[in-house]
């Protein structure tokens, strides 16, 4: 009898030991699970923070790219047109407009560019250099007033060796939006006899067109 009781006690002790081991394993698993959960939560927060940083950096880079595309933000642009002879011949063959770099009339203002046809367009073709001032889609358009009324002075810069003798050819121009109906002063024309017969307006196969927006 004692042997049977002892056997049962031994079995109970063994079961208690095994149960204790199972409980320890369960507790250990719960601790491990909690640690894993905390680690995953930490990584989730760090991943979210990293994504936010990358998104902010991307927005910043996009903004910088837009700004770097602007030649100026004070309403003043000097546009050098190189390879004048080649471009003039191309303009004689095709009625095309060449485009200047973009600029703004002021910080966070309207985005503009000059357009020019070296051999003219329409009734001016073959006799005049034509220059227009165009308002293009800009970064801050939704904060600006429309329609906009902008005027400026476009100058063909004289290039004499003695700057004191420079005589620029200047005219007033009104800015227009793409596909807007033509109005007075939306193009200026500079006669070829002025551009081509002067030894100073074309120099080193280049001309300079300058525009200043009225404020």
TrEMBL record:
Protein name, as recorded: Traf3
Gene name? Answer: 6043385
Ranges for domain MATH: 76-213
Listed Gene3D superfamilies? Apoptosis, Tumor Necrosis Factor Receptor Associated Protein 2, Chain A (2.60.210.10)
- Origin species, per record, is Culex quinquefasciatus (Southern house mosquito)
């Amino acid at each position: 009898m004692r042997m049977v009781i002892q056997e049962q006690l031994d079995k109970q002790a063994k079961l208690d030991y095994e149960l204790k081991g199972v409980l320890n394993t369960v507790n250990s698993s719960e601790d491990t699970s909690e640690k894993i959960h905390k680690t995953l939560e930490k990584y989730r927060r760090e991943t979210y923070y990293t994504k936010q940083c990358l998104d902010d950096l991307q927005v910043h880079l996009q903004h910088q790219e837009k700004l770097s595309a602007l030649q100026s933000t004070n309403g003043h642009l000097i546009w050098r047109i190189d390879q004048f002879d080649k471009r003039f011949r191309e303009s004689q063959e095709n009625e095309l407009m060449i485009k200047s770099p973009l600029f703004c009339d002021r910080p966070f203002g309207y985005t503009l560019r000059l357009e020019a046809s070296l051999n003219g367009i329409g009734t001016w073709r073959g006799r005049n250099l034509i220059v227009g001032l165009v308002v293009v889609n800009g970064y801050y358009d939704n904060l600006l007033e429309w329609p906009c009324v902008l005027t400026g002075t476009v100058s063909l810069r004289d290039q004499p060796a003695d700057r004191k003798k420079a005589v620029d050819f200047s005219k007033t121009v009104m800015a227009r939006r793409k596909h807007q109906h033509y109005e007075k002063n939306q193009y200026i024309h500079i006669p070829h006899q002025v551009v081509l017969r002067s030894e100073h307006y074309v120099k080193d196969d280049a001309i300079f067109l300058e525009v200043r927006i009225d404020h």
